[in-house]
From TrEMBL:
Source superkingdom: Eukaryota
Protein name from the UniProt record: DZIP3-like HEPN domain-containing protein
Pfam families attached to this UniProt entry: HEPN_DZIP3
Lineage, uppermost ranks: Eukaryota, Metazoa, Spiralia, Lophotrochozoa, Mollusca
Species the sequence originates in: Mytilus edulis
InterPro entries on file: HEPN_DZIP3
Domain annotation DZIP3-like HEPN: ranges: 839-947
Length: 969
């Protein structure tokens, strides 16, 4: 309904208008303003000439005719002169030529309705002979028109008890006004007016009243009625009625107690009534009106009376016990059963107005929504009696109420049929559960005849509808994912073989296949997001017409390329839990201390002595959310086949990517599933066996260890033993590779084969062990190691004339610089490293800059071997394990020292320049292909590397390089 604003239109103002109005002959009409008021206002001007209709002169014609008729009966205002609106061609033509305009409120004063009213007010006319006569108008005969009139001035107003001489009193003449006045007085609880009405009806009292007083009474009662109606509509009134009935039942129940004279405070009853309305969800505006509640209670509890004690109102039963007992003995059965009939009629009306149809899911509040509240209240009172303190209904109440709804009909039926609109969740759930567990038609039909479940055909129809709806949704999505799963939750999966009724000899009863389950882990911070609003599609005939997507239903063949599984190498290392272990040990000592302090005669009933009770009492309460699980459609293929496992991986990967994008799929194999399923049962069995054998029967010593469980998850696989032949082959390959590199290097530089093949270049010392095991002497060792050195051998030079032991001058220079940079420069850098990083606080520095170090590792600035040093450095470690590259990286990224990739200027004698020179020439030596260096290059390189004596901070490094330089030169 559109909002309308109403404006009271005054009648003609006979006073002379202000100067802005056209009252004088010396003023002309401004046709651009309103022709009536001639004022400038914000109101819109209306002009018939600008209308879109064909005949624009109709508005001017009607106005000109009305003005002429107003002028004929002398009803025009004195300030309006028609001569100003007529230029000689007539009022209508003048208005049309001038495009006259007016305000709507000004035009309403001269419309046809006002003209008729003016003609009706014209009660005199001048006859032809010039004498005045009364205009006899047809009117109804009233009491006021009678010749004999009562002096109403002697009466006062029934409502205000006063009389105004300028206003006439009216007399109440109908019983309708009496009934309405009584209703208004009852709504308003006007005690003074109710006292006047108690003397009799208004007609008998010949009550007189002012019209404005009666209208004021009606409006005041209407506002109270509107306030009552705005408290929630029909449902709110039902809640108020139920709360009042429960309050009356509470009062009656208190009265039935022996040796108790109950007295109720209205403040307590009002608070109880308000709390009950709040629990039922009824809307309230402010607090409960205690006076209205008291009057309602007095109406429905006739044996109770109200008493005033100070500011408190008290309710108590009458002291006359005899009449009460006599009324109880003379109970009217007709009245009782009529009350039952009325109650049944009200509840049955609510039942017929309630509809509940299965839509494919069972919501959390589906049981309460399928049953009217009046029926729940009635069943709850029948089962447990009146109870105003309980704000919820038990499952028994809900089940009985749903069974009544399911078996109710509008009229008596001969056949046992149920409408879909009256299928309650309890009956549908019971039928589906029994069908899933037994698949027996006879059992479900028996329950259907008893009114406890839906029919077997209805279950098949629902099952087919669910299947078709889900398959259609799966085909649209392109993957199989049940609607119960949520978005944004960490999802895991399990694959296991399904063996249903394996002892059956027929293919109809047994099933051997594979099942895939998805589990979503819910936390208090993350509950997930509902994927879609599942709605059941109604399918006629109850047949399955849709199928699963081929990407899910078709298992493609697959084989393994190799039987040896490839296990990926992880970058992270296992972390210890020494802190948790220490805390657990301390908890055990606390339990022992509690037991030792408890004496046998001091032990009470709730004393925690046992280990399990003590730890259960001190275990913090954690709020665990149940996981969301779903079983995907089953496969007929066996779980042990390679094709089925690969297909399971693909299905799980697709589902997990759809549910939680970016997560790696986590799959629990059969061994893990079996372990989780059996671990609790095995633990209980072992605990009972341990108590029985060691403490009760005492057949086994208490110190004998418990046998290890044969669980696949905790089973240690047997290590593979490598044969001696494979060890020999691996060592031979290593020697061949090493000798080939030596032969290539000997072509350009000198070398000693005996030194090269020393035990430092091999996996194990040759003289002490063989393949990691103690080596025993053989005949070949005696001949090759003992006798062969005692004989003389000749060594001929190579044919090209180059001696193996000859080393040129350039190579000596290269080795000098290499010795300085590779062997001694790390010591110099370590002096600076120890100065910048205190070894005692290095652990905290690494923990503080762990994010920066992790980024360097991801950029491959820090190698995996160097990264393992950081992991181990969280526990006691040695700084000597840090190589030169790692120390330079830490100095460059964690300190303010500037280390460059290019060679610094000779004038730069800072700490960063010294490290930059070592870093630069070390990389140059490592990437050198010639292995030689001239004398000039050697002198320049050595001077650059040893240029660390310019500052006092590098004094220690200079002292280190000085003896080294002398020894090399």
């Amino acid at each position: 309904m559109s909002n309308k604003s109403f404006q009271l239109i005054d009648t003609f103002d006979e006073q002379v208008p202000t100067s802005s109005k056209i009252g004088g002959h010396d003023q002309n009409v401004d046709w651009f303003k309103c022709i009536f008021c001639q004022t400038d206002s914000l109101d819109t001007l209306q002009c018939p000439a600008s209308a879109r209709q064909n005949d624009t002169s109709a508005g001017y014609k009607t106005l000109s005719e009305n003005l002429e008729q107003f002028n004929e009966i002398n009803s025009l205002p004195s300030w309006l002169d028609l001569n100003k609106l007529n230029d000689g061609s007539g009022i209508q033509n003048t208005l049309i030529k001038s495009n006259a305009k007016w305000h709507k409120k000004c035009r309403l004063k001269f419309n046809t309705t006002e003209l008729k009213r003016a003609q009706k007010r014209q009660h005199r006319y001048i006859s032809d002979d010039g004498q005045a006569s009364l205009l006899q108008e047809a009117r109804k005969s009233t009491r006021l028109s009678l010749p004999c009139k009562i002096g109403l001035k002697d009466y006062v107003c029934f409502f205000c008890d006063s009389i105004e001489e300028d206003e006439m009193l009216r007399e109440a003449a109908t019983y309708g006004i009496d009934n309405r006045v009584r209703e208004c007085a009852q709504k308003l609880q006007d005690t003074a007016l109710l006292a006047k009405l108690s003397a009799g009806d208004l007609v008998a009292q010949e009550a007189k009243y002012h019209v404005k007083c009666l209208i004021y009474l009606y409006r005041k009662a209407s506002r109270v009625a509107n306030d009552d109606e705005s408290e929630g509509g029909t449902q709110s009134r039902i809640s108020h009625g139920i709360a009042l009935a429960e309050l009356v039942s509470f009062i009656e129940e208190s009265r039935s107690e022996d040796n108790v004279a109950p007295v109720f405070k209205m403040s307590d009853l009002s608070k109880m009534y308000g709390n009950r309305l709040e629990k039922m969800g009824a809307e309230q505006e402010g607090r409960v009106h205690s006076t209205r509640l008291k009057n309602r209670l007095l109406t429905y509890v006739p044996d109770i009376e109200a008493y005033k004690q100070g500011r408190e109102n008290l309710l108590a039963f009458k002291d006359d016990i005899g009449p009460a007992l006599r009324r109880a003995c003379e109970e009217d059965f007709d009245s009782n059963y009529m009350q039952i009939y009325k109650a049944v009629k009200i509840v049955r009306s609510d039942m017929m107005a309630t509809s509940s149809e299965f839509n494919g899911t069972f919501a959390a509040d589906c049981q309460e929504k399928s049953v009217p509240r009046s029926l729940l209240t009635l069943v709850n009172m029948l089962l447990y009696g009146p109870d105003i303190t309980t704000d919820s209904f038990s499952q028994e109440t809900l089940s009985i109420a749903q069974m009544l709804i399911f078996n109710s009909h509008k009229r008596i039926q001969k056949s046992n049929r149920h409408a879909k609109s009256r299928e309650t969740p309890s009956q549908m759930y019971l039928g589906i559960v029994i069908h899933c567990q037994t698949r027996k038609r006879g059992l479900i039909d028996k329950l259907y005849k008893l009114g406890l479940s839906v029919s077997y055909d209805r279950i098949l129809s629902v099952s087919a509808s669910l299947t078709n709806t889900l398959c259609k949704q799966y085909q649209e999505d392109g993957y199989v994912c049940p609607p119960s799963l949520r978005l944004g939750l960490f999802t895991t999966a399990a694959v296991d073989n399904i063996d249903h009724n394996p002892s059956s000899t027929t293919a109809k009863d047994s099933f051997h296949g594979t099942g895939i389950s998805l589990f979503q882990h819910v936390t208090t911070q993350m509950n997930g997001q509902q994927r879609l609003d599942f709605q059941l599609t109604s399918i006629q005939g109850g047949r399955v017409t849709e199928s699963l997507p081929d990407s899910y239903a078709v298992v493609k063949p697959a084989v393994l390329k190799t039987n040896v599984p490839v296990i990926p190498v992880t970058d992270s290392t296992c972390k210890g839990c020494t802190g948790d272990l220490h805390e657990a040990v301390q908890n055990e000592y606390r339990w022992l201390e509690t037991v030792s302090n408890s004496k046998e005669y001091d032990i009470e009933e709730r004393t925690l002595v046992s280990w399990g009770a003590y730890h259960a009492e001190h275990e913090p309460i954690k709020d665990f959310e149940p996981c969301v699980s779903a079983l995907l459609p089953l496969f007929e293929e066996e779980a042990k086949s390679v094709a089925m496992i690969k297909h399971s991986f693909d299905v799980i990967k697709t589902s997990v990517e759809a549910l939680n994008p970016g997560q790696n799929p986590d799959i629990a194999p059969t061994s893990v599933v079996d372990t989780i399923r059996k671990i609790e049962k095995i633990g209980k069995t072992q605990y009972e066996k341990y108590i029985e054998d060691r403490l009760i029967k005492r057949t086994v010593p208490i110190f004998e260890p418990i046998k290890k469980n044969a669980l696949a998850l905790f089973r240690t696989p047997h290590g593979k033993t490598v044969s001696a032949m494979k060890d020999k082959i691996s060592i031979l390959k290593s020697d061949v590779s090493l000798f080939s590199r030596l032969y290539i290097s000997c072509q350009t530089r000198g070398g000693d084969l005996e030194d090269f093949f020393a035990h430092e270049n091999n996996m194990h010392p040759q003289a002490l062990s063989q393949h990691g095991k103690m080596r025993l002497g053989t005949k070949s060792d005696l001949l090759s190691k003992c006798l062969e050195p005692l004989t003389t051998t000749t060594c001929d030079a190579p044919e090209n004339g180059v001696s193996v032991t000859s080393i040129v001058r350039e190579e000596i220079n290269f080795l000098r610089v290499a010795n300085l940079l590779i062997k001694h420069s790390p010591k110099a850098v370590r002096i600076l490293f120890d100065r910048e990083f205190n070894p005692s606080g290095l652990k905290s520095i690494f923990s503080k800059n762990w994010t920066k170090l992790d980024k360097l590792k991801k950029k491959h600035v820090i190698t995996q071997t160097q990264w393992s040093l950081f992991i181990s450095f969280r526990f006691p470690s040695r700084l000597s394990n840090f190589d030169l590259t790692l120390m330079v990286c830490l100095l460059r990224n964690l300190t303010k020292i500037t280390i460059q990739d290019q060679l610094p200027q000779p004038s730069d004698l800072s700490e960063g320049a010294a490290v930059s020179r070592i870093k630069f020439y070390r990389n140059q030596i490592a990437h050198s292909d010639s292995g030689a260096m001239s004398d000039s290059e050697f002198s320049k390189t050595f001077d650059e590397v040893s240029m660390v004596r310019g500052t006092q901070k590098l004094k220690d490094i200079y002292k280190l390089f000085k003896p080294i330089a002398k020894s090399i030169i």
